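ok so for the tutorial part 2 we go from a plain amino acid sequence to predicted structure tokens. step 1 is just haveing the sequence, like this:
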Amino acid sequence: MKRLTWLMAVLTIMTTSVCSAMQMQQPVEIGAVSLLPMGYYEVKGATAHEGVPFKNVKYLTSYPSLRMGNVSKIFDKGVACFGNGEDCIYVHYDARDGRATYLPNKSNSFVSKIGGKDFTNSIDITVSVMTHINCIKTDSDETMYLLVNEDASALTGITYTLIGRRSDGSYVKYFDTDDIIGRYYAKKREIKMQSIKIENDEIICDYTVNRYGYVGPNYRKTYEGYGRLCFKWDDKAKWFGVANKTW
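step 2 — the prediction. this is what the tokens look like for a chain of 247 residues:
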């Protein structure tokens, strides 16, 4: 009888532990923001958008895909809302601020903000070529947004950023793979992020490692490896832990 009581207690603890783990649904794209080579924004899939159109007639005439009739599809400054209802998230952008410090030979990227309608409740993000915004629903009071960032330099290819909206309405940045990779590799250009997937309370990002050097007179690939970043939700800390696995 005592053994049966002990076994039931263990099973209860195990069941409670499993049930308490946050469950995340697969990402669903709700829109995108792109930065054009001349330093102007294009907004795609917004449910609401207030923007200052770019009005360089000569430029727009040369690129008819950037206008709809006589109306510009690219913008200098604005606020775009993506998603509906409680899932709404806002992007605040200002290309004029970006162009003031724009260095085309060094970085084709501008800093924007993503988060609440009030820009003071938002997180800085870097838009390079295009940032795809994906909503991840959970079974908790957290809503998460996965940003898939295409890199203009084509060195790192893609990076992933995870933004969260907490129960009090505040926004936090849980991780940015570009920052995390820097903890493990001195030369981030050797790393290319690959696929990303969600398994229950864990986000898994695969990547490859490629190194090049001279072998005799020839410059070629000298090493190829693989890695995986595993971001697991810690319900007590209300944060993601990270583990780096290589093979």
